[in-house]
Amino acid sequence: RMGFGLHYGWAIEGAIGSMLKIDASYLSPNVNLAARLETGTHQFHVDILFSESIFCMLSPEVQELCRKIDRVTVKGSIQPLALYTYDVPSCEASTVKELYEKAEEEYGEDFDFWEAFRPRTSTTYRKRHAQAVEKYLEGMWGEAKKHFEMCLMEWQGDGPSQVIMDYMSSKNFRAPDDWKGCRALTSK
Q1: CA atoms within 13 A on the CB side of 45
Q2: Using CA atoms, how far apart are residues 145 and 115, in angstroms rounded to an integer?
Q3: How far apart (Å, rounded) are the C-alpha atoms in residues 118 and 183?
Q4: Beta-ladder partners of 26
Q5: Residue 186's pLDDT is what?
Q6: Which residues of the chain have pLDDT under 70?
Q7: Could you read off the pLDDT of 41-94 as tens digits, one per residue?
Q8: CA distances from 145 to 29, 68, 80, 82, 121 (A)
Q9: What is the DSSP string of the chain?
Q10: How many CB atoms lie within 10 A of CB 30?
Q11: Residue 187: its pLDDT value, please?
Q12: Per-residue model confidence (pLDDT) at position 75
């Protein structure tokens, strides 16, 4: 399964190699962060995982289609990072061209992308999940648990909800005394 990790920030491009072979390389903590987000897609069982820097670049209308799923620190950084996802709808197309052709058939030639490819979660679900995440980040894990349980009753396959439930369960659903509203993302 392929996952996409998206982050925005500076990078330096340079040529690395020898007289026989030269490759372009990108150096930046931001490139490393995007790679860690890609790895995080497997941890959270999502197709797309992106940082707050990407989220802030989206229009308010598109932001409403996304979910904040956690706040973490990644290896090599002490700066907390909010993580977001877009719940990609299931699709039977095998190419982007085929995907657009199907959308044009259903919605017409001038279709609105976000109307045709709405997330698999409803607005109500995303609001309930946002409440759960808010309570979790505030350290009110008993309340967060109730909200996440409601989310998982509606969508048992929600990876982000299950990941946070598993994390809170490992702490007996009590936020640590030194809880700062974020946790370390352990995968590299």
Answers
A1: 9
A2: 32
A3: 30
A4: 13
A5: 77
A6: 187-188
A7: 999 999 999 999 999 999 999 999 999 999 999 887 889 999 999 999 888 788
A8: 34, 16, 22, 20, 19
A9: ---EEE-----EEEEEE-SS-EEEEEE-HHHHHHHHHHHHHHHHT-SEEEEHHHHTTS-HHHHTTEEEEEEEE-TT--S-EEEEEE-PPP---SSHHHHHHHHHHHH-TT--HHHHT--SS-HHHHHHHHHHHHHHHTT-HHHHHHHHHHHHHH-TT-HHHHHHHHHHHHTTT---TT--S-EE----
A10: 16
A11: 67
A12: 82
Tokens standing for residue 48: 């797309």
Token pair of 10, please?
A: 């500076």
Compute the distance between CA of residue 53 and CA of residue 35 in angstroms, rounded to an integer: 15
What tokens does 147 get?
A: 């909200």
Pair of tokens at residue 96: 């982007």
Query: Which single residue is written with the structure tokens 């299950």?
Result: 162
Output the pTM of the full model: 0.90
- The residue whose two tokens read 């109500």 is 124
Are 8 and 53 in contact by the 8 Å Cβ rule? The answer is yes
Q: What's the CA gap between 64 and 136, in Å, rounded? A: 20
How many residues does the structure list for the chain?
188
